[in-house]
């Protein structure tokens, strides 16, 4: 059984996922949507996708099975809930949302609808995290009573350009905004190695 998916936001990051979804044998069709239609058209051409849609709303009204959200960091919470309410399974890039209230609403909507929401914490697949996960599973760490994580990103390796790409002249106003609400990769490394006990 396969499913179809619409990728919302094909900026710096989303296009690469559209490509990966397109290569996956479990995915039948991949569509691109972006507020800037030329980005959706470019992604369609570059990754040989199955089509574009004019808006998020048009995607939700279509018969795609799932929606993957790669819009700017602070926009995910409401879009995820809207997509779940439209009957779509949802994947979103990190962060899940930027307030506890938004996160609670996603959990509540998943319970109401029975649909799947998945947050794409990529550090789960970081080789260091995979290694630590295997060591922990093999019992080599002993009893863990404390862990902490850091995530350091060299901003000179394309990050300023990434913010400028969608932020325009005013990009500094939204770069890393709001910074302390994006601790995901620091926490993801730890939780990816040492699963929380229920
Ligand atoms: N390792 C990781 O997990 C990782 C790495 C990079 C980026 N990200 C995440 O991916 C997301 C996207 O980052 P990016 O660098 O590609 O940003 P970007 O600004 O390059 O792209 C965002 C795109 O979303 C589009 N968009 C915004 N709202 C929309 C809407 N309602 N409908 C349709 N299109 C809409 C914009 O026009 C833009 O093209 C961010 O949430 C970021 O946190 C995660």
Structural overview:
The longest helix is centred in the middle third of the chain and has 14 residues, at 100-113. It contains 8 helices and 6 strands; from the N terminus they run βαβαβαβαβαβααα. It is an alpha/beta fold and 198 residues long. α4 runs parallel beside α5. The two termini are 32 Å apart. It has a 6-stranded parallel β-sheet with strand order 3-2-1-4-5-6, sandwiched between helices. The model has no long low-confidence stretch (mean pLDDT 93). It has helices at 14-23, 37-47, 56-61, 76-85, 100-113, 127-137, 159-167, 184-193; strands at 3-8, 27-33, 51-52, 66-69, 89-93, 117-120. It binds nicotinamide-adenine-dinucleotide.
List the helices and strands and how they pair.
Elements: E1 3-8, H1 14-23, E2 27-33, H2 37-47, E3 51-52, H3 56-61, E4 66-69, H4 76-85, E5 89-93, H5 100-113, E6 117-120, H6 127-137, H7 159-167, H8 184-193
The structure holds nicotinamide-adenine-dinucleotide.
Residues 8-9, 11-14, 33-36, 39, 56, 70-73, 75, 93-94, 122, 162, 165-166 line the site of nicotinamide-adenine-dinucleotide.
């Amino acid at each position: 059984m396969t499913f179809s998916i619409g990728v919302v936001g094909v900026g710096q990051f989303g296009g690469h996922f559209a490509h990966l979804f397109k290569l996956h044998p479990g995915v039948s069709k991949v569509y691109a949507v972006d507020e800037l239609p030329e980005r959706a058209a470019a992604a369609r051409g570059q990754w040989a996708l199955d089509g574009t849609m004019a808006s998020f709303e048009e995607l939700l009204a279509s018969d795609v099975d799932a929606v993957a959200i790669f819009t700017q960091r602070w926009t995910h919470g409401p879009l995820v809930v809207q997509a779940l309410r439209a009957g779509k399974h949802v994947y979103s890039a990190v962060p899940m949302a930027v307030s506890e209230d938004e996160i609670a609403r996603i959990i509540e909507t998943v319970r109401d609808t029975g649909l799947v929401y998945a947050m794409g914490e990529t550090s789960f697949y970081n080789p260091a995290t995979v290694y630590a996960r295997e060591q922990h599973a093999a019992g080599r760490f002993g009893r863990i009573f404390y862990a902490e994580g850091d995530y350091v990103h060299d901003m000179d390796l394309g990050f300023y350009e990434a913010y400028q790409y969608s932020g325009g002249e005013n990009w500094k106003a939204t770069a890393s905004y709001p910074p302390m609400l994006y601790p995901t990769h620091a926490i993801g490394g730890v939780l990816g190695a040492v699963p929380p006990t229920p």
